[in-house]
């Protein structure tokens, strides 16, 4: 008869509890197994985030430095010591799933009952994916550490070593490990935090009161994977197709602009009577003959577009350089997998980048900006010159506002490319600063089409975007208390309302450059100038400007109040809502005004092109907002553990929803640029004196 071979336990777990133990009269236990010695003391005291927690039960797995068969077959010897007679419960059991295989397994732990297991890389495996899921939102931590004993100290807290990686989690944790980094063997530890400080308040508030012992169930898997050398080609292929399409469309637009250079006929061609716009709603104005036109706004000397590259100074020192400095901080925290807010289910590691797919898609915005800058400065780049002569027809071309907007796109693209390698809330103020820059630059681009370019516009963009960046920095980087947070919110509200009111004042009361002081309405808080003039000689702005002013102020008031009504920080969302909302309102208002006063000049080609561009632009904007608000794959405003709950699988090989959002944003910006270049092509032959300013 064949003798049955006794199986050697891979690890031993010892559990003990004693309610009679106190700090003054502790209960101690010493466990000896061959060369392994482990001590346990009750009550078990743990320090966490400046607080102390006591537990009258403990469960530890012995850490055997020597994994030989002789050591593992040694008997377990336990000695108990107590200053007072004590009643205790003791249990010793074998951990049969201690050696991690290719199968998923379950583990249950609590703050005083940490769990750990061991994985050995097969010879043909160089990389593994670690995935941990849990039905409970209790805050836990997963740690991968090169095999080295002891793993836990007497209080049940993890002993750190030179090579380790950790990640806090609620319902999901995941990361990859390479054999060349962690070693041939590593311990995988699963612990539970004493409170929710690091993970944030659970969505399920009943999860904690119904579980005072904080027992958490985790499903753990370690899966060998092979680096797919072809996988990085999918993001590159999608990027190449997208950018090739943009380059082709940009080239066609470039040829179209060359045919319509300056959007005006030659000064020697035509007369003021050509191409008049018929105003069929003349009853809207008291004095239609004295409504100020585009002619009175175009008397100043053209602003040199190259001067607007001075804005690049603020972009470099305001966003790009600070984002580069964060790369050095991230290198110091490479073992802290909480630092980078990545989509760990679809982050493509390639070369030295942690998220190659996100960096590739993020750079598309910079490409849009560079291509359009080439169009603006094509005369200097390709060494040819088309004369620009101010004439009496059409809108005077002003490329300076474009330059500011395109520089913002380039800066945002570079910023996104850098930060998407390791997103973190320490750079969110840079994102808000550059986003505000783009919003207000686009807003001023619309404004300047009829009103021209003024110096105050430059300072307005710089001032408002800088203030928003500083407020976001104070709100999200520093641990401000409730009083300081309210101060930040109030400052944001004042800035949002005051900046909008200032713009509206300039929009309605700014005197056109072609008029004298006695020919224009008197602004509030100013006394009328003493000139002998006929009252009928005073020009007036369009009355419909009041509609835009009311809409803009109402939007700013709503966005200013929202952060004050919520306890959580909402200034970031309010800034985005305010910027996008103002552009949307002005753009729709601009289109409506053109339909009111210029529809007689609309050709069939113009109607089709503008309608298609506008519809596709709005659809892409809605898609972008949907992806940003409802389909986020991470969120730097949340805790790292909460952010990982948003992680999603790839929608395409090496492409996630965040990448699609980057591409949709780039397409959205490109369509906006096309719309702005094309929207006033209908009045090329219309005299300036018949072009209303709205």
From TrEMBL:
User: Which UniProt keywords are listed?
Assistant: Glycoprotein, Membrane, Signal, Transmembrane, Transmembrane helix
Presence of keyword Transmembrane: yes
The UniProt transmembrane annotation reads: 229-252, 308-328, 359-378, 399-418, 430-447, 459-480, 486-505, 546-565, 571-592, 604-627
Q: Which domain of life is it from?
A: Eukaryota
What membrane topology term does the record carry?
Answer: Multi-pass membrane protein
Localisation per UniProt entry: Membrane
Checking InterPro entries in the record gives:
SID1_TM_fam (IPR025958)
Q: GO CC terms for this protein?
A: membrane
Keyword Membrane assigned to the entry: answer is yes
Q: What is its main location?
A: membrane
Which family, according to UniProt?
Answer: Belongs to the SID1 family.
The record's listing under PANTHER family reads: SID1 TRANSMEMBRANE FAMILY MEMBER 1, SID1 TRANSMEMBRANE FAMILY MEMEBER
**Name of the protein:** SID1 transmembrane family member 1
Q: Which organism is it from?
A: Caenorhabditis elegans
């Amino acid at each position: 008869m064949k003798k049955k071979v006794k199986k050697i336990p891979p690890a031993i777990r010892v559990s003990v509890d004693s309610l009679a133990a106190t700090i003054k009269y502790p209960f101690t236990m010493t466990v000896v197994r061959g060369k392994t010695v482990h001590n346990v003391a009750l009550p078990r005291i743990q320090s966490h985030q400046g607080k102390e927690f006591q537990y009258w039960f403990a469960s530890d797995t012995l850490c055997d430095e020597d994994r030989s068969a002789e050591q593992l077959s040694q008997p377990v010897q336990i000695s108990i010591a107590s200053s007072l007679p004590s009643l205790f419960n003791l249990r010793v059991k074998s951990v049969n799933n201690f050696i991690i295989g290719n199968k998923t397994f379950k583990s249950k732990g609590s703050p005083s009952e940490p769990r750990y297991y061991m994985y050995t890389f097969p010879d043909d495996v160089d990389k593994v994916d670690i995935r941990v899921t849990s039905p409970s939102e209790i805050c836990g931590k997963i740690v991968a550490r090169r095999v080295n004993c002891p793993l836990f100290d007497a209080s049940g807290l993890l002993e750190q070593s030179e090579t380790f990686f950790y990640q806090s989690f609620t319902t999901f944790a995941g990361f990859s490990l390479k054999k060349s980094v962690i070693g041939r063997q590593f311990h995988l530890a699963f612990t539970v935090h004493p409170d929710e400080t690091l993970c944030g308040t659970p969505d399920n508030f009943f999860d904690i009161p119904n579980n005072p012992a904080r027992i958490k169930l985790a499903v753990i898997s370690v899966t060998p994977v092979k680096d797919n050398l072809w996988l990085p080609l999918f993001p590159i292929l999608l990027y190449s197709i997208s950018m090739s399409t943009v380059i082709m469309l940009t080239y066609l637009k470039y040829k179209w602009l060359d045919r319509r250079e300056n959007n005006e006929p030659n000064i020697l061609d035509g007369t003021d009577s050509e191409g008049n716009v018929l105003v069929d709603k003349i009853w809207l104005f008291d004095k239609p003959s004295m409504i100020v036109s585009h002619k009175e706004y175009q008397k100043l000397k053209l602003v040199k577009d190259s001067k607007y590259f001075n804005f690049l100074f603020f972009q470099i020192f305001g966003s790009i350089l600070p984002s580069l400095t964060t790369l050095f901080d991230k290198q110091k925290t490479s073992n802290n997998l909480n630092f980078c807010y990545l989509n760990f289910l679809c982050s493509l590691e390639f070369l030295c980048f942690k998220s190659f797919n996100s960096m590739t898609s993020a750079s598309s915005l910079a490409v849009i900006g560079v291509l359009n800058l080439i169009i603006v400065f094509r005369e200097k780049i390709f060494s040819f010159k088309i004369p620009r002569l101010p004439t009496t027809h059409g809108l005077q071309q002003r490329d300076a506002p474009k330059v500011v907007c395109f520089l913002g796109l380039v800066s945002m693209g570079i910023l996104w490319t850098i930060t998407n390698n390791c997103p973190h809330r320490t750079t969110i103020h840079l994102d808000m600063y550059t986003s505000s820059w783009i919003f207000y630059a686009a807003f001023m681009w619309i404004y300047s089409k009829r009103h021209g370019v003024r110096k105050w516009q430059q300072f307005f963009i710089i001032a408002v975007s800088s203030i928003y960046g500083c407020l976001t920095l104070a709100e999200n980087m520093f641990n401000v208390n409730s009083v300081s947070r309210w101060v930040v919110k109030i400052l944001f509200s004042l800035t949002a309302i005051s900046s909008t009111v200032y713009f509206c004042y300039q929009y309605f009361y700014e005197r056109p450059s072609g008029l004298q002081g006695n020919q224009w309405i008197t602004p509030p808080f100013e006394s009328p100038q003493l000139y002998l003039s006929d009252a009928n000689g005073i020009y007036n702005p369009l009355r419909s400007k009041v509609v835009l002013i009311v809409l803009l102020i109402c939007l700013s008031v709503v966005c200013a109040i929202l952060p004050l009504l919520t306890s959580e920080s909402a200034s970031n969302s309010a800034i985005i809502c305010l910027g996008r909302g103002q552009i949307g309102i002005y753009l729709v208002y601009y289109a409506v005004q053109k339909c009111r006063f210029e529809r007689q000049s609309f050709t069939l080609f113009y109607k089709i092109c503008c309608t298609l561009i506008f519809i596709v632009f709005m659809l892409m904007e809605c898609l972008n907002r949907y992806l940003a608000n409802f389909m986020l794959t991470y969120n730097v405003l949340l805790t790292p553990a909460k952010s990982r709950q948003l992680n999603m699988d790839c929608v395409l090989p090496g492409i996630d929803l965040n990448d699609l959002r980057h591409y949709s944003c780039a397409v959205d910006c490109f369509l906006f640029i096309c719309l702005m270049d094309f929207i006033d092509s209908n009045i090329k032959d219309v005299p300036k004196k018949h072009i209303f300013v709205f």
